Amino acid sequence: MAWYTKYLKYFEKPYSSVPKNIVEEIRNNLARFQVTDVPVATIAVIARNEETRLLSCLWALSESCCDYPIEIIGVNNDSTDRTAEIFEDTGIRWFTEMQKSCGYARRCGLEHARGRYYFCIDSDTLYPPHYVQMYIKALEKPGIVGVSSLWSFIPDEKHSKWGLKVFEFFRDIHVWLLSFKRPELAVRGLTFAYRAEYGRRVGYRVEIKRGEDGSMALGLLKYGRLKLILNRKVRVMTATNTLDADGSLFKSFLNRVKNALKGFGSYFTKRTHYADKESNMIDAFKKTKV
């Protein structure tokens, strides 16, 4: 049985369907990560209307195997469902960010983080038991300022297990190749941790819809190296949201192949700046045309 199978029992299910004893078990497990005033790392779980997935994410995190003192906190990005209630019921320290975007949510977590290292966790993702421990060990090495790893998608009715495996095989090669010259493009927010001190200096971009994590990674390169961990023990499982936007897995694959071919030079050249696309700007930050 795969490590994440048990956490799928209530994944994509309403909070009302979860037995109280499961919630209590998760609360008790999470309590062991809230006992220190000086954590080595802060794990911030960001969520916006993630009632059906958040508890499974916290369940997986609650069973982390970690020898380092850590804290787990939550960021509720102005949800209108029972997201806040789940944070409250599981007993972790949590905060509300009223301004909506991943950038704002990740920044809120960073502002309240007490750890030397900052992990920003996506609530639609399940994290393996050794994820935090192995990331911290990598971050402790000289010259490493940030780490990331690969990810897989949770199979469902629309996406077969073997179809996803083929998709992920080619995607992994693409990400691995990017990690040499453009490590900032190999980073995804759901699998990213870095030194909080430098992250605060760089700051999160809040005016863009996507790419706030890559922008943070690019800024961190001024202070050290980014490391891509290939070990399967840190490979996370996430929902298929990003694939659904393209309609089908095959279309998603073709679109990514086209983009990879278009940016083929990215494998061989470094870059220090990327131009913003108008379509990626949050409305409030778009330039008003006169």
Written description of the protein model:
With 290 residues, the protein is an alpha/beta fold. It has one domain: Spore Coat Polysaccharide Biosynthesis Protein SpsA, Chain A. The protein has ten helices and ten strands. The protein has helices spanning 20-31, 51-62, 83-89, 102-112, 131-139, 161-181, 196-202, 212-220, 241-244, 249-262, and strands at residues 41-47, 70-76, 93-96, 117-122, 125-126, 144-149, 151-153, 192-195, 225-229, 236-238. Helix 1 (20-31) packs across helix 2 and helix 6 runs parallel beside helix 10 (249-262). The termini are far apart.
Notable traits:
seven-stranded mixed sheet; globular; 10 helices; three-stranded mixed sheet; 16% strand; alpha/beta; 290 residues; Spore Coat Polysaccharide Biosynthesis Protein SpsA, Chain A
Low-confidence stretches: none
Kindly report the CATH topology. Spore Coat Polysaccharide Biosynthesis Protein SpsA, Chain A
Order of helices and strands: HEHEHEHEEHEEHEHHEEHH
User: What is the CA-based Rg, rounded?
Assistant: 19 Å
Q: Sheet bearing the most strands, described? A: 7 strands, mixed
Mean pLDDT: 93
**CATH architecture tag:** Alpha-Beta Complex
Ends apart, CA distance between termini: 60 Å
Shape: globular
